[in-house]
Amino acid sequence: MTRKTWRNAILVLLLALAGAAAWGWHDFSRFSDAPLRVSAPGESIDIARGSSFKEIVQQLRSQDLSTASPLYWRLLAVQMHATGRLHAGEYATPAGITPRRLLANMAAGKVLQRNLTIVDGWTFHDLLLALGKAEKLKHETAGLDAAAIMQKIGAAGEQPEGRFLPETYAYVKGDSDLDILRRAHAAMAKMLDEQWPQRDKSLPLATPYDALILASIVEKETGRADERAKIAGVFVRRLENHMLLQTDPSVIYGMGDSYQGKIHKTDLTTDTPYNTYTRPGLPPTPIALPGKPAIMAALHPEPGTALYFVARGDGTHAFADTLAEQSRNVACYQLKRCNP
Q1: Does 13 or 173 have the greater pLDDT score?
Q2: Is residue 161 part of a domain?
Q3: What single DSSP character describes residue 31?
Q4: What is the DSSP letter of 176?
Q5: Domain region containing 89
């Protein structure tokens, strides 16, 4: 073979290698920024603690998120300076996520967060049911009674009703229901600590817990923002005048499982610790988990003269200063006997 032939052969080889390198780089770049094969909404990958990079790639391939060569994954990690920096945990794989974005999330420890919303007006029982249904949450309260749960979260001796602030709480895999309860309990305690000193000083409430009880009643009586402070004002004036509160939601709470969706006259005369038709003052505990708006209404009730209110049936209430006026409102809105 002549020197010219050698040179041509070498040139062809170099061109072939350059072409292969260009194709390889193009294919690697395509891999890096092309969406992974996500087959279902809500899919995720859970990386166990101590997993090697090779095991992580094998898991990606076994979940059919990627069919790319492990070499590509290794090169991408090296390019991103992510080798050896990938954190264990559960990571979201939403539609459109790329290998580059997934590795960046793993390197930053941006694990998948889920949310649990505690709804204003839920009872403690409702909260436990929601926690029990929450995905990827360790259920450490299973089999524990209320007293044991409160002890576990560092609030031994407290009654749980009303003690947890309705908000949305983020959590990650590995968190427990007790973790969320601790946070919600601390959030409610912090709110009361901050807001109690700013209350209307003339309130007939001796403690922040009294305010929590009143707020829970307001929470259950109305969901309307424009009526909360007005209804709180009615109950405050009834307390000041030593009148029975006569609030149905408290009676219903005291009925427990015997309540089947309708309250009867006999229920109003059957004495329980929560029957505000038979017992004066506030009930012994909150009757629900009040949200911040209800708490603010209890601490800053609207001034006025009304001592009564009744539901109109459209979500609003009719207020009255006298029993005679209240009786007319009841006849009109509850018995449908409105005078022309």
Answers
A1: 173
A2: yes
A3: H
A4: B
A5: 43-111
